[in-house]
Write a structure and sequence with these properties.
The protein is of the alpha/beta class. 38% of the residues lie in helices and 19% in strands. It folds into 2 domains: 1-13 and 104-331, 3-Layer(aba) Sandwich (Cobalt-precorrin-4 Transmethylase, domain 1); 14-103, Rossmann fold, CATH 3.40.50. The strands form 3 sheets. Strands 11-10-12-1-13 form a 5-stranded parallel beta sheet, with helices on both faces. The protein has a 5-stranded parallel beta sheet with strand order 7-6-8-9-14, sandwiched between helices. Helix 5 (132-138) links the parallel strand 6 and strand 7. Helix 6 packs parallel to helix 7 (182-195) and helix 8 (207-222) packs parallel to helix 9 (236-245). The chain starts with a strand and ends in a 7-residue tail after the last strand.
């Protein structure tokens, strides 16, 4: 008998839901197609569905010629100010509207960078340097900006400032990709705070990411034989859930849709958890959940929601100043 544990919250986060609604709203106002500047979100099923409504992912470059009465939409991950200006010029030239689906949490981080950049601060951003969000955010820094991807790159930076006494006297701001691993942020903030006396720390991990990680961590601590993580392999927040699960003695499967499930691997499990990234729809999660109930006939289901996730402080230790992201005005 398999105990299936649905680990909440599930479904789209507010930023993803807003981006999809924005795309559909813009399409309702134009007679031509809507072109998103890169993938709107990391969910191929949703992107395919949007194609049916004439909302297309597009690599927009100098050769792109938007059709008459079409529109261009900035993706949820945001873009650099330079690219925004270029898109504005393109749209002005071709008389098509430019709309913005940037996640408000990402726009909030950009506003912090812009504000401190004008004051001469240097930046340390925790995250994946190749991710669209990070590449966009770096464009807002008018002062030196370094991306620290993991513990090894953090240690490398710390070793560098050990040999450069002047570096420790510089004013730094620590930020993170909105979908970062919570534990990595806390460790990095603590270690950097001990070495950089003028460090200002802004915890910019979005609430949806934080809540899902902490809820999953609590469920894993109760003991899971297996875990299905629903979401794209290109989704940073989904992969953070996968990485977190691998820290526990739990078999992990990362799937995007029901067709990827090998039910024969699941019959012997005692407990099976289901969680999802913020770009996975509630409908998709429910379909997978119902398929598991049907194909594991002796299974039964419960829901898990860590009520304490909303109560955990969002501020990390630093020897300098610390700030919660919610206390800083958004862009």
């Amino acid at each position: 008998m398999v105990k299936i544990i649905l680990i909440e919250p599930i479904g789209f986060c507010p930023g993803v839901r807003r981006a999809i609604e924005k795309a559909k709203k813009i399409k309702s106002k134009v007679q031509g197609s809507v072109y998103t500047d890169g993938p709107l979100i990391h969910n191929q099923q949703v992107l395919q569905s949007l194609k049916n409504e004439h909302i297309f992912e597009k690599k927009i470059d100098i050769s792109f010629q938007p059709e008459s009465r079409s529109a261009i939409l900035i993706r949820a991950h945001g873009i650099t100010p330079e690219r925004r200006r270029w898109l504005n010029t393109l749209c002005h030239t071709h008389h098509c509207p430019l709309a913005d689906a940037t996640c408000p949490d990402v726009a909030h981080i950009a506003a912090i960078i812009r504000r401190y950049s004008r004051k001469g601060f240097h930046f340390l951003i925790l995250g994946n340097p190749d991710h669209a969000e990070i590449m966009g955010l770096k464009g807002y820094a008018e002062t030196p900006c370094l991306v620290l991807q993991d513990i090894p790159t953090l240690h490398h930076f710390l070793s560098q400032i050990e040999t450069n006494p002047n570096a420790t006297s510089l004013p730094y701001v620590l930020l993170s990709q909105s979908t970062l691993d919570v534990d990595f942020f806390e460790k990095a903030a603590q270690r950097l705070g001990k070495r950089l006396p003028q460090l200002i720390v802004h915890n910019t991990i979005c609430p949806a990411t934080r809540q899902r990680q902490l809820s999953l961590q609590q469920a894993l601590k109760t003991g899971l034989d297996g875990l299905i993580v629903i979401g794209s392999k290109h989704s940073h927040n989904t992969q953070q859930l996968v990485t977190l699960a691998h820290k526990f003695p739990t078999a992990v499967w990362n799937i995007e849709h029901m067709g990827e499930i090998n039910f024969s691997e699941l019959h012997a499990l005692g407990t099976l958890g289901i969680c999802s990234g913020t770009s996975a729809s509630e409908q998709n999660v429910q379909e997978i959940y119902l398929a598991l109930r049907k194909n594991l006939p002796k299974s039964y289901a419960v829901r898990h929601h860590d009520e304490g996730t909303n109560l955990r402080p969002t501020i990390s230790y630093s020897s300098g100043q610390i700030s919660s992201s919610q206390n800083t005005p958004k862009a």
